[in-house]
Inverse folding.
């Protein structure tokens, strides 16, 4: 997998920032921040997933897929996905 998985991803009005969080058992949890708006109208939603992954890269990939799914399901998305 590509180490650049932790870079922010623009999806229309949203910015996804995936993260991998190590736990005490040595595995990794996926987390994603979903931001929208600017200035005083900025909102940020943080999603953490209970699945544990063997590597940080797999956790980051899971975070990206879940964040993209959330935006497609709940967001008003009119443009394509691009990396910042």
């Amino acid at each position: 997998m590509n180490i650049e998985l932790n870079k922010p991803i623009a999806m229309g009005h949203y910015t996804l920032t995936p993260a991998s969080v190590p736990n005490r058992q040595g595995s990794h949890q996926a987390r994603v921040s979903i931001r929208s708006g600017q200035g005083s109208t900025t909102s940020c939603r943080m999603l953490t997933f209970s699945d544990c992954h063997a590597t940080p890269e797999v956790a980051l990939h899971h975070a990206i897929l879940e964040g993209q799914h959330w935006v497609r399901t709940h967001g008003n998305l009119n443009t394509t996905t691009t990396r910042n």
Notes: The longest helix spans residues 56-74. The chain has one domain: 3-83. Helices lie at 56-74. The beta strands are 9-11, 14-22, 28-36, 43-53, 81-83.
